[in-house]
Input
Amino acid sequence: MSSTGFIDLDRITRRFTSIPPFTQRLLKRLGGFAASPTVVYAVEGVSLSLAHGETLGLVGESGCGKSTLGRVAAGILPATAGNATVAGEAVMVDGRKTTTRIQMVFQDPYASLNPRMRIGETIAEGPVSHGMITKAQSASDVNRWLNAVGLDASAAQRFPHQFSGGQRQRVAIARALAMRPDALVCDEPVASLDVSIQAQIINLFLSLRRELNLTMLFISHDLSVVRHVSDRVAIMYLGRIVELGPTERIFTAPRHPYTRALLDSAPRLAADGAPMQDIQPIRGELPSPIHPPPGCAFHQRCAYAQERCRTELPALRATGKSDQAACHFPLGGP
Amino acid sequence: MNPVLLRVRDLKAEFVTRAGVARAVDGVSFDVHAGEIVGLVGESGCGKSVTGYSILGLIDAPGRIAGGSVQLDGQELIGMPHQQLRALRGRRIAMVFQDPMSTLNPVLTVSAQMNMAIQSHRRCEAAQMRQHALSALAKVGIPDPERRLMAYPHELSGGMRQRVAIAIAFLHQPALVICDEPTTALDVSIQAQILVEMKTLVREAGISLIWISHDLATVSVLASRLLVMYAGRLIEEGPTEEVLRRPRHPYTQGLIDSLPSRAKPGQDLVQIPGSAPPLGELPLGCAFRDRCQFASSVCFTAPAQTVDHQRSWRCHHPLNVGGPVRLADAGQ
Output
């Protein structure tokens, strides 16, 4: 893939290898029985390219590797193979993050804020230690970012436990913004919030994106949230991207059977408020990323699977001008 | 309509804390008819779960039931001696909780836990018990139940664990099952499977269900009637489709409008300003007052319940009453 994007993920692979248990290691020493370590294939050769100012929604069920991919993109987790760059700069070199251009907002603002640090300290810590601002400037800087996320300046003196979930998520966003990033990775930033608060935070993201021209990788399992905020959507299944395309096309005319199945299984309300009672569940469960099935990873659950799907892994290839799908038999014809 | 199975009247539950008394449930009244699925919706802290727990008598200190009545088949549950209540729980009323990892015992096999549940209400031979457990697991869509019976909870996926919890709740064919956000922790595809299974299960057995959830869309798949709670009070009630299409309470309207699926992509969502008041310091009058665009001076007095046909609401300025439907006005 050409590296013309602002955020470029080039054939990212991330595997997690477990250390064999003590007894197995001992046996290996004593008798030479080779114990094979367990390998989790979290992300397998994923390439993505985000244009400057674009928001890409990354959708998938738990264990599909979307958070792992997000962490690699944000430079929190080194990739086993492949390169992640932001504006041509490598995000990580030798396992150390080398850019501040990309920052991350996490799902759980209860776990991602240090409970013993005042909000002001939390927000100023990054920019001060990176020399972006001096300690003397930190108060006014903190003020600015609190203001940007819709919090009162007095919040700086308080501790995380004094805030509600929605307010904490605002603090977490302010902390990310204080690093003056060009890009944000948001990992399920509204999943733990109530509906009315969720709407407030989504609106905040929309306005920040407009004002700061942020490029965003927006990870979520919630299809309606992703549809609302994203320009393009990538659907992940068991470590690979199975479909990629403009948001409305993905939601109205999906090409991959998994995308179709996901849309059909999500409860939603019609435009006039009528409940949709006809959800169609996908059969079966997500296969294990430790033993991924041969061929197309979705074939055991796919209504259209044929012999070829059981043996041959479908590559992600163009199905239209700006669309890609990894399916031997894409919906709506090849 | 079927006869009333559960009658809740003016139920009050409170928690005594150092900061004061938090009125988690503040005078909630509703009925559940036999074979009916009722959705109890609201945001965190609105008292929906505490309502569910109160029905089963599962409120421990510092919480207490401060008043009201809960009748199952005409039998009063509030103040019922502990022994009698135990005999009812699991047999006549059962509960499914949000997180199956913390409701199932991690050191016992599925079979051991199911046997315990069976034996607590019935004397049973081992072989009979096994048959009973197997058929209960098969009914909730667990493939290969023989093998799962010997499994420990950690060996099962999240969806399978929740199915086991549901199977246990349905073991004794209870009259009423209270489900507290049972699919919230699950993936969309697994949630859809469980919703569909639940629907058939309940329909076949004629069991009544109270489905507690914060997710309007999910509840609407199952429930024929919705109860909406805010700050410990029931603020709106009615048939699901009616409530969703023509909400009476501005809070319900706000909840529906703030769903991303209701807005044009990329445009700002309708948001309810502010957040719910802490239960310890509820304002007098309508608790939604400070967040409501229609609030006026009359909202400083608590709105009484208005009942109209199958619907009821507590609001001084109800929406969609009489005149044309709001959404039709908007040209949708």
